[in-house]
Amino acid sequence: MAETITQVSDDEGNTYVSSSFKGTVELGSISLTSTPNPYGQPSIDVYVAKLDPRGNYLWAVRLGGAGDDQSIDLVRAPTGILYLLGHLGAGATLATTQIAANRGFIARLDGAGTLMWARETGNAESRKIATNAAGSVLLAASSSLTSITVANTVFTNPGTIPQPPYQYTSPSSDGFVAKLSADGVWQWVRQIAGPEPAHLGTSTAVALDAEGNAYVTGALRGRVDLGSTTLTSTAQQSRAYVAKLSPTGDWLWAVSPAAPVAPAYVSQTSSQQLAVSPSGSVYWLGALESPGGVAHFGPSQLTATAGGYGDIFVAKLTSQGEFKWAAQSSGYGNDIGLGLALDKDENAYVTGSSYSDSPSNTIRFGETELLNAGSSDVFVAKLAATGTWQWAVRAGGTGYDRGTGLAPDNQGGVYITGTAGSQSVNFGPVSLAPSATAGYGFWAHVSTSTLPVTSGQASKQAGLQLAPNPCQTAVRITGPSAHQAVQFHDALGRLVLLATMPTAGPLHISLPSSLTPGLYIVRSGSLSQRLIIE
User: Fold this and answer.
1) pTM over 0.85
2) Which of 113, 241, 365, 426 is disulfide-compatible with 392, CB 3.0–4.6 A?
3) Which SUPFAM superfamilies does this UniProt record tie to the protein (predicted)?
């Protein structure tokens, strides 16, 4: 069992992924086995791996102990350093640091996957991390415990929240944002809470800009004070927020979607992700959770789909906290945004899941409408820097499938990781081979520069020709030199068929039945081409 959680990329097109796994996982030619628990059964460990632009695994490393551990987030500094956020169920020694049981951790790895150091984050629920060129690390965490430890600092949370009309209360929640230096020393930690016992504050995502300013987002209920800024909401309805702190942890500003003028209904909002561009623009991913409800993001008014279960929103702010625009999805399903990333031109990419109990339901991004295949599907959508949806695609099967992480390739496409709850998942013309069990991670690439060829046409690239393409039982290959090796790789980069060009003429290959329908990459020397088997 392995579940891909998140990924990042570098300027050379390599990608880095983190995942939790149980037992043995095969990553190309690399095999990793999780630590046995005290009963001799496999525990759940964490791995970090690097893949080249073609999807081949270059290295992979395992971290964890004898308990059930979790991979939460992975980020990469421009210097090539990787930071992993995770959680240890039974504790373990990472590098030279002993991490206690049921505690979060941040681990620093170099570009070759060598573990350099690790630091315990505390008993709060760690949510996200961010880094910048200086190698500083920002942590977002939340907790409803009465005694909370974050970044070696103890906080108390004695509050409760009434739950009318029911005769009970629930613990209030506090959010936290903490900064860690590049050499692993905690710099500061700030609490997101209010003066009244009945409050809720969460911290779900963070970002760092080039100057070291910190950005944090989450949700609040009741009154929450962020420096000199007070944000409020009713006790029954949460509101999302974004706030900025200086490099030394001073609150600079905080904003939240404005309520509409009565009698319009206020939409409950939640927050998922943040990203900051090199120019200092802030991109914010969240959700409109009240069907028919309205929320104002500066000049943009968004209305959640009436009769639906939730839409996603993306908003853009200046570095001073002024809203520039906001865009949303629409549909009758429950749409959740889980991943947000920017390319070099400040185009935004989002991924997540669209759940519906009806296969006739759709999710719309601007003019693009995607049909749900049943249960929960993956979506990937691109938004221009001006706030206009550019395109959107879906993937999925009959189970619960979701996209969780994004990494733009800076050529108009994007890499995506996620989790497949379906035994077989379709990614356009590409299909993952059916799995005996659901619940596995996937890694995929969405490209806008290379599209599937039309049925019956040959595909050509600098002398490499495949015909027919798509094909069913056989394919003819021309172009490569005599005796040149020809390799077939599946969508995961695995070598599945090897042949050799004849002394003269084309190579005719009868495809073995083991090659399931889907997308394959045919390579010969420096040439490569896509082949679709139907």
Assistant:
1) no
2) 365
3) Calcium-dependent phosphotriesterase, NHL repeat
